[in-house]
């Protein structure tokens, strides 16, 4: 479910600056990351069978701190629903040894599109900021350093051209 949460968080940060994806590595870290959650905040828990006890505890914690809690889960029978005020359901059938995340990803994608449409001015402003940062760093779309000297490249091309001519003869 971390993949779904990271995907959701990435796009929510285009809309809001204070989005945090909580990693449930261990219980102490979980509560350290959530210690400032409270009224006015929203916590979104994502869990499917075999439900994560840490995610459930995080939702309970957020609920106790008066945050709004949303569950993205598989059914009305999910324990995630105990602490949420809004339950969003997406099937996650196991067709093989791998759980299908197609429906949950589609649900999250629909939420992102809806949130972005509702906050389109903020999204445009944030994307323009990102583009300004990228332009200021003269990012050319290539993350790799060209280690070949220009003269070496010319020599390589000359060799390739000569090899092509020899092949034609």
Explain this structure to me?
With 169 residues, the chain is mainly alpha-helical. It is built from 6 helices and 3 strands. The protein has helices at 2-12, 27-34, 53-64, 102-118, 120-136, 150-168; strands at 42-46, 68-73, 86-89. The mean pLDDT is 82.
**Distance, first to last CA:** 61 Å
Across the major sheet, the strand order is 1-2-3
The tally of helices reads 6
Secondary structure: helix percent: 40-55%
Identify the overall geometry.
elongated
Short description:
The protein has helices spanning 2-12, 27-34, 53-64, 102-118, 120-136, 150-168, and strands at residues 42-46, 68-73, 86-89. It has 169 residues and is mostly helical.
Which key phrases capture this entry?
6 helices, 3 strands
Topology summary:
Elements: H1 2-12, H2 27-34, E1 42-46, H3 53-64, E2 68-73, E3 86-89, H4 102-118, H5 120-136, H6 150-168
